[in-house]
Specification:
Elements (H helix, E strand, L loop, with lengths): L7 E15 L2 E14 L3 E5 L6 H8 L7 E6 L2 E4 L11 H5 L1 H5 L4 H9 L1 H4 L15 H14 L4 E5 L7 H18 L2 E5 L3 H7 L2 E5 L6 E6 L11 H17 L1
Parallel strand pairs: 3-7, 3-8, 5-6, 6-7
Antiparallel strand pairs: 1-2, 1-4, 8-9
């Protein structure tokens, strides 16, 4: 019996993006980028620093219009590198912001947001303000806010870049569980190749700017994945070699 094709949540076809530096000069940031993300999958985007990973994410989310090429994507909510929590609001009210913006009453928004706190391991911190939360906890609140926006696609732009090594390991675990439980399509930009291998179903490897797709790799490793798994180690090394060749 033939496999039923999986619908694509995000598709970019031959996307080119140029930016004007000054009146007489333009730079090309993206060069004929083609990629897709199947519904319910996690796609990681890796590449050299400054190659255009974050720009590609903004194009995929409809925040930037490409110079040429086509983008077809379901509605997306984006979580930036910084958590951008409101310092005067509690963790619960920060998580509920997207629901309030959608028109829900404060009580209804807080009730829905509160359901995510146990799932993300931050139950008991609902009434704490951001300054009293660790970096990892702040990211969990920001992630809850992104999920509660209710969009079928979530875009994560190096969400753990500011965390220390131990916090990153912990963050990967809860993010993996949340993505598996949520059924959303996720686009993850990361500079950490190991993180990409541990979390993603597909990894897009980009060249230096202007970014081209060097390789699109399916990650056929059973989840949950461990850093010490020989398949994880081998794939990480293979991608690092691709990036080295690209540079």
């Amino acid at each position: 019996m033939p496999n039923t094709p999986v619908a694509s949540a995000v598709t970019l076809s031959d996307v080119v993006l140029t930016r004007r530096v000054n009146r007489s000069q333009q730079i090309e940031v993206l060069d004929s980028v083609t990629l897709s993300a199947a519904e319910g999958s996690t796609v990681a985007i890796v590449g050299p620093s400054g190659c255009g990973k974050s720009t590609l994410l903004e194009v995929a989310c409809g925040m930037l219009k490409p110079t040429s090429g086509t983008v077809t994507a379901q509605p997306a909510a984006m979580m930036a590198q910084r958590d951008l929590l409101l310092p005067w609001a509690t963790a619960l009210d920060n998580a509920a912001l997207a629901l309030r913006a959608a028109g829900l009453s404060r009580d209804d928004a807080r009730d829905q947001a509160a359901d995510w706190f146990p799932k993300l391991g931050i139950a008991g911190f609902e009434n704490v303000r951001p300054a009293q939360l660790s970096g990892g906890m702040r990211q969990r609140v920001a992630f809850a806010r992104t999920l509660l926006a209710g969009r079928p696609v979530i875009a994560l732009d190096e969400p753990f870049a500011a965390l220390d090594a131990l916090s990153r390991i912990e963050a990967r675990a809860w993010l993996s569980d949340a993505l598996a439980a949520g059924g959303r399509t996720a686009l993850l930009v990361t500079h950490d190749v190991e993180e990409a291998v541990l979390l993603a179903d597909r990894i897009i490897v980009l060249s230096p700017r202007p970014a081209k797709v060097v390789e699109s790799l399916s990650v056929e490793i059973a989840k949950p994945r461990r850093r010490s798994d020989p398949q994880v180690v081998a794939m990480r090394q293979s991608i690092l070699e691709l990036l080295g060749a690209g540079q």
